[in-house]
Amino acid sequence: MTEKDTHTLEDEKTVEDTEQDVIDTENDQSSASEETVVEENANPLEAQVVELNNRVLRLQADYDNFRRRSREEKEAAAKYRSQSLVEGLLPVVDSFERALLVKPEAEETQSLLSGIEMVYRQLQETLKNEGVEVIETVGQSFDPHLHQAVMQVTEEGFESNQIVEELQKGYKLKDRVLRPSMVKVNA
């Protein structure tokens, strides 16, 4: 081989190398652009996946809150299921108490009164079993959540803001006030 042939071979190798470099560069650019396209497409997809995951988590939290509220409402409904019945019976209890204040003169009236007392005790026991309690008043400090002040008086032997007299009994069903006590309060 001659020098000319050697240059030609080298030039051919250089041209081939250059062509290969161009092809490699194009492939790299093509790969890079494909990765960019994939990344650009992946970012919206990833964003959509993240958004959907957040939506699922919010829905799950909402559902958990709904279940908790439903359970609490059911418990409250069960706890206070007899409230309307008890509220309807409170005037009956008041009437029994007024009837028991009557002092009988005849023996027939005495036997009728003892029958009324027996029914009254049964009614009180039934109400107690349902969780109904009488609100304590006389000698207690006035509590606006439990008592309704009808009168304010000045009496010796009582502290300021202390209940002097109960005018009407108040009742609670478990921890809920059904009817506040009507009371006289010391000034």
TrEMBL record:
Comp. bias regions, Acidic residues: 17-27
Entry keyword set: Chaperone, Cytoplasm, Stress response
Region feature Disordered, mapped onto this chain: 1-44
Transmembrane residue ranges: none
Family: Belongs to the GrpE family.
Function of the protein: Participates actively in the response to hyperosmotic and heat shock by preventing the aggregation of stress-denatured proteins, in association with DnaK and GrpE. It is the nucleotide exchange factor for DnaK and may function as a thermosensor. Unfolded proteins bind initially to DnaJ; upon interaction with the DnaJ-bound protein, DnaK hydrolyzes its bound ATP, resulting in the formation of a stable complex. GrpE releases ADP from DnaK; ATP binding to DnaK triggers the release of the substrate protein, thus completing the reaction cycle.
This protein's name: Protein GrpE
Organism: Alkalihalophilus lindianensis
